[in-house]
Amino acid sequence: MLQQTQVKTVVPYFFKFTKKFKTIEALSKSNEKEILKMWEGLGYYRRARNLLACCKTLVKNYKSRLPNSIVEIKKLPGIGDYTANALLGLIYNEPRIAVDGNVKRVFSRNLNIKEKNIKFDKLIEKNKKKLFSTNRNADFVEALMEFGALICKPKDPKCLACCLNKTCKYFKSDKKIKNIRNKMIKNKNYDIFCYINKKKQIALTKNNQISFLKNFNLPEIKEANSFTKDQNWKFLKNYKNSISNLKLNINLYYKFSNKLPSKYNWYSLNDNKEFVPSFTKKILRQVSTLF
Ligand code: SF4
Predict the structure, then answer these.
(1) 23 near 54, Cβ under 8 Å?
(2) Is 38's pLDDT higher than 80?
(3) Is residue 131 within 6 Å of ligand 1 at its C-beta?
(4) How many other CB atoms are found less than 10 A from the CB of residue 26?
(5) pLDDT at 214
(6) What is residue 190's three-state secondary structure?
(7) Are the CB atoms for 274 and 256 separated by under 8 Å?
(8) Partner residues linked to 234 by β-bridges
(9) Each residue's pLDDT tens digit, 119-137
(10) Domain extents for the chain?
């Protein structure tokens, strides 16, 4: 849940999930529809699918216990290097560091070397004796991340109060490094075509290959001007939407029709029982203004 998402946003979702599913087995018996509905609003829905798939795999192949080897743990859905290291450190007290943005910044500033010029794996391997000179590795993993978030903050690090300021090269240097993260923003133009009927329903399909919402409920969506539209399509609105690093410029079209296109289902514009991603909800809101 915490990937790309702030703690304060995650907290209510975390409590909702742990209240409903007390064990891995309980969660594994749920289904995608239920999990996605509970996840609604948190975004990055692939995480919800991975969470469910991960629990099912753990129950089926690992007696509901998280494996304690990096090779096995990385076979689980949605678990990459970062999460694998965090889990092995936090749960099994293994000497590991979960290298996230906070941790990179702490190392980078201590050495006063730009992040992009540091090979973090090699650095950790080379200094493992110094770094892991504790038997409280679980606390160490957590502490490093917290240290980056609370003391060695992205802006205005609390250097005067910092326990590392005697050795920190950033603190001592007259030429302090600057880590500039260039988020690669991509601009995309899409045309969206909504079939609607007089019962205030819209046709949605999961059968789409659109990269940022693959296999989620959407109307027909095409790269702008890639589809020759007949004159029955009426223009409704142009608006902007952002998803992750994508800036989307959207032209929304609609057409009244009682005929459901193949592989689509009717979805009530007022119904919120079934999960739809926020991207689609925004479309539904625009289309609702027609009634
Ligand atoms: S002295 Fe400042 S820059 Fe260095 S680690 Fe501490 S907070 Fe970060």
Answers:
(1) no
(2) yes
(3) no
(4) 12
(5) 79
(6) strand
(7) no
(8) 254
(9) 999 999 999 999 999 999 9
(10) 186-288
Q: How far is the CA of 168 from the centre of ligand 1 (A)?
A: 6
Residue 152 CB–ligand 1 contact under 6 Å: yes
Task: At 239, give phi and psi (nearest 5°).
Answer: -150, 170
CATH number of 186-288: 3.90.79.10
* Parallel, antiparallel or unpaired: strands 186-197 and 246-256: parallel
CA of 110 to the centre of ligand 1 (A): 7
Ligand 1, atom nearest to 158 Cα: 7
Q: Is the CB of 171 under 6 A from ligand 1?
A: yes
Amino acid at 152: C
- Please list the residues that pair with 255 across neighbouring strands: 195
What are the pLDDT digits (tens) for 221-280?
A: 988 877 777 788 999 999 999 887 889 999 999 999 999 999 999 999 987 677 888 889
**Residue 49 tokens, joined:** 């699918």
Question: Ligand 1: which atom is nearest the Cα of residue 157?
Answer: 7
Rg of the chain taking only CA atoms, in angstroms: 24
pLDDT at residue 216, rounded to an integer: 85
- Count other Cβ atoms within 10 Å, centred on residue 291: 9
Q: Is 148 in the pocket of ligand 1 (CB under 6 A)?
A: no
Write out the H or E segment, with its range, that includes residue 203: strand 201-204
Nearest to 186 by CA among 112, 245, 122: 245
162 CB within 6 A, ligand 1: yes
Q: Is 111 in the pocket of ligand 1 (CB under 6 A)?
A: no
What angle separates helix 32-39 from helix 7-20, to the nearest 10 degrees?
140
For a pocket test of ligand 1, which of 114, 153, 165 has the largest count of ligand atoms closer than 8 A to its C-beta?
165
Q: Whose CA is nearest to atom 4 of ligand 1?
A: 168
Nearest Cα residue to atom 2 of ligand 1: 159
Residue type at 89 in one-letter notation:
G
